[in-house]
Amino acid sequence: MKERFDAIVVGAGPAGSAAALTLARGGRKVLQIERGEYPGSKNVQGAILYADSLQKLIPNFRDEAPLERHLIEQRLWILDDRSYLGSTFRSPAASEAEPDRYTILRAQFDKWFAKKAEEAGVLLICETTVLDLLREGKRVVGVRTDREDGEVYADVVILADGVNSVLARKAGIRPELGAGEVALAVKEVLFYPQETLEDRFGIQGEEGVAIEMVGKITRGMVGTAFLYTNKESLAVGIGCLLSDFRREKIPPYVLLERLKEHPALRPLLRDGEMKEYTAHLIPEGGYRSIPKLSGDGWLIVGDAGMFVNSVHREGSNLAMETGRIAAETVLELKEAGAPLTESNLRLYRRRLESSFVMKDLRKYRHVHEVLENNRHFLTTYPELVNRAAETLLRVDGVDKRAKEREIARSFRKRRSYRGLLSDAVKLWRAFR
Amino acid sequence: MRGPNIVVCVKQVPDSAQIRVHPVTGTIMRQGVPAVLNPYDLFALEEALRIKDRLGGRIVALCMGPPQAEAALRKALSLGVDDAVLVSDRAFAGSDTLATSFALANAIRRLSEEKPIDLVFTGKQTIDGDTGQVGPGVAKRLGMHLLSYVCRIPILDMDSGTIVAHRWTERGVQVLTSRLPCLITVLEGTSQGRFASLPEMIRAARQPIRVWDRKAAGIEDLTKIGLKGSPTVVGKVFAPSRRSERAECIEWEPDHPETAVALLWEKVLARQPEWAAMASADARKDGEEARSE
Amino acid sequence: MSEAEGKPAEKKGAARRKPTFDPRLAEYRGVWVFVERDLSGVHPVSWELLGAARRLADQLGSEVGAVVAGVPEEALDVDSREAIAYGADVVYQVGHPVLAGYRNEPYSKLLCELVKRHKPEILLLGATSLGRDLASSVATTLETGLTADCTELAIDRESRALAATRPTFGGNLLCTILTLNYRPQMATVRPRVLPSPAKVRDRSGQIRKEEIELHEEEIVTKIAQFLPHVGDQVDLALSEVIVAGGKGLQKAANFALLEDLALALGGEVGATRAAVQAGWIDPQRQIGQTGKTVRPKLYIAAGISGAIQHRVGMESSDLIVAINTDPNAPIFEVAHYGIVGDAVALLPLLTRAVRGRILPEKATPSGLCASP
Ligand SMILES: Cc1cc2nc3c(=O)[nH]c(=O)nc-3n(C[C@H](O)[C@H](O)[C@H](O)COP(=O)(O)OP(=O)(O)OC[C@H]3O[C@@H](n4cnc5c(N)ncnc54)[C@H](O)[C@@H]3O)c2cc1C
Ligand SMILES: Cc1cc2nc3c(=O)[nH]c(=O)nc-3n(C[C@H](O)[C@H](O)[C@H](O)COP(=O)(O)OP(=O)(O)OC[C@H]3O[C@@H](n4cnc5c(N)ncnc54)[C@H](O)[C@@H]3O)c2cc1C
Ligand SMILES: Nc1ncnc2c1ncn2[C@@H]1O[C@H](COP(=O)(O)O)[C@@H](O)[C@H]1O
Question: Which residues, if any, are the signal sequence (chain C) (predicted)?
Fold first, then answer.
């Protein structure tokens, strides 16, 4: 007779491992299936890890997780073609208390996180791809893998297979991804001697810096760029809506090359040894592209459920949060002896609605359309603000009031008064 | 007829394709370099598994390494190995091949107390140590017959305890007959590896791996393991010096590749006086022949 | 050295062990080479090793010894005299019927015995299937250090120990390994890594016939048969001209372009692992870390990126020429001359240029090259 598990978790990213860990701790028999050679072997992220969701699962993770640096400084740069205007928030205090965000290398982090789940009793198998959900009638009863004798059964299947979620699409749970709902991000990891990095960014020990960038570097496409410091490397990447890439016909790597050549970045990136170049999708659709989240015998978590807050670049924490909540839902129903039916599993969505996950996603539900419909936010403004800064800061005998007038004129010239006003309103609405 | 009792030695190694050297200090940057089962050991595993397919018996995978090396053994289990032993102890740190072979030989001796061992398999070499010394070393220490660089085992007769193995050499293949117990180092490329079934994967994930410390592996003498037991000492590690100048690239126009190629060949000849002399002698001779015709 | 490499711990180890040099080890003197031979003669790596042994012995002020073993035939004397011509001062000659064909048991027994008898300080072998097999067994029996696949041998000034340098971590790094408190210090070196020394016909040296007790009945392993490799078996390591191709040639058929050029030059065709894995060419022709080490007079690399694992097998070639479409390909860092362009288009032109300027076979002066 075929073996039967309480739950099968597909995928060993942050969402899958959070779910598997929670279930195993609840005493359930869990099989976790990962297609990569090991957890994290193919996973791509910036990567910043927000501590909170992990801390709820593993309170002492700071002692043992493979963390790179904790961020003491965050910069936001608005770039035009040659300059940038930016803000910097630096607080070394972050290194004293418990830092709330770290840079990580996913290959190492995911391996560690999955190991924690294994230690809690999860049975993890790698190098195995789940091909289909097995159903009895409408009910999902297990999965079929690419291995010989590859069918295995469970009371519930948790889909944590990431943004592409071929499974969810095949099973008709999720529609095909719209090109406007996902961003394509490309990223390089460049290696440096630790001292070089620390000198360049004015950091020491475990301290790190993150730079987020917007502006003309995306050529009017909706997207952002980033640079994060790891221990001996830095990650630099850029992502834009897939639909924009298609329309503009700019190959992503060209965009990344241009970013690296930007006068603001070039000196920071000098002499790096390129180790890896990766491309990956990020769900961008936000609240409105969240699919049906559960049904008879299945739940969907993490990127597979489109849980990414793209404005704040939060994804892995939402993945862990949704993974944990899904697992807790299953545990609770099982304990109550309730069957894992479509109606009972709706509890999962209700739980999410009262967590920060849904609240945040709902808050930003208009951002993308605003940006998409107002591309000048991404091109004209960066140029204007940079020009303005330049005008204001140059000491050239022109009095400051005259400079202010000149700046105001330049804004009006490019965007009428009414335009400026309506832009302000739109932005306020989108981010409110 | 009983099936053979087999030990396969497998090592976990950093994937050398992904190792980088610190551009300034010339040291290894191990960060983020994934560890894999030594690719050569997969051939050893496969050879052992084929014997088990044919004759039955039992296979134990044996690895010496840090606790993480468990992953390599897990992989061996998923391919169909019956049991796995990880020999792991801080005292082993810094072992060279002599010390490694000592530790492995002791562990194999312990295993043979449970059940006598007929065959030990190792890979041809590892991709990190790259020496191919551990296998022969283990054989010597156990007093087993050594068959190295084996590419085929046409006969294994458990009743008479005889084995016929094809041993690869640069000039040809030696067909060797020998007696059990023996140790075989397996040449690469001898076979296609197998793909485990799902139930096997689940069984492997579930199976406990035995972890032996120094004592459990039956090692009393601390001077034979780790740094103390290693005659070789690493004096210095450094990046290979690269030639400072890059290649002189021939500039050429897309319409005239033949000129570029001719120029290149001239340059080659200029660096090889003997050839240039011969070439011009040929040219002269050709010229003379042409004239005399 | 498998575990030991590159960890800071050993440095401490080296420092700790240095002062306690056992005076008994001072008895060990002389630099020995095990001469690898079979029916077709002596493997050239043995002569290369004798060249290195000569240098080391001169530095240490000691003698070069050569071990020549085999069946008792005239050949032993011929090879012993050759060994002297290549730099040996003393040849330890062992003739015995059981030594027909290499087997681990008798050979490791005889070599261990000779070492115990004469106590050489250094013992060198070729990193061949025979040398690696024999060296490992002997080192284990004698419980001494063995450094495999060295690329450079020198004497460490401070300790007067053998400083054996070898690639590690897939050729990304080199490390120098010392065997401080154990004798003999053993090392293997791949064929063609060291230059071949000049042969001095009238060098004088001593041939000592050594008796070793060996009994066929005691040797369990028997050679039932020897099946020489048939067909496409070349010893790339000995070719003077190599035309090598990689993934950049795009398909198996394009390897014919390499063959044409190789023919025009009287050379052989080599390849990268990527090309071998694509099934475009026989694995025997792979050059690099897990293939052969070559040292030809001319190495032409077509469509080869120049990965470190490939470079370690060819970078000591006298003259390297690269053709690659990517001007930033690492192969241009080791090449002397290069053309940035499509190898598929350029190779035939190069063949024509070669044909026009030099005739086949004649490019390779010695008979060494292109062994059938
Ligand atoms: C460039 C980039 C930068 C980012 N930066 C950040 C950041 O700074 N901070 C942040 O919080 N988030 C960031 N994100 C988002 C974050 O990476 C994701 O939200 C997070 O990885 C989602 O986790 P997950 O477990 O849902 O999916 P994944 O991490 O994608 O994991 C899915 C797993 O399932 C496996 N799998 C897929 N299909 C199958 C199958 N059929 N069978 C078996 N296994 C399967 C995959 O191999 C994978 O291991 C970034 C994303 C990108 C691309
Ligand atoms: C443990 C280990 C051991 C290894 N051992 C070896 C070994 O012994 N030997 C070995 O070779 N490799 C070895 N490798 C593999 C090595 O790392 C490289 O992958 C391999 O050498 C690459 O082969 P390549 O140059 O043919 O292919 P690629 O790296 O794919 O390079 C192809 C090159 O061709 C160029 N090109 C493309 N089209 C054309 C054209 N039309 N004309 C001209 N140029 C063109 C490209 O610009 C590129 O530079 C080993 C790897 C590992 C991990
Ligand atoms: N630490 C180890 N644990 C188990 N087997 C090993 C270990 N080191 C080496 N081996 C075996 O010995 C073979 C040769 O290794 P090496 O001498 O390091 O090239 C490998 O292919 C393995 O089969």
Answer: none
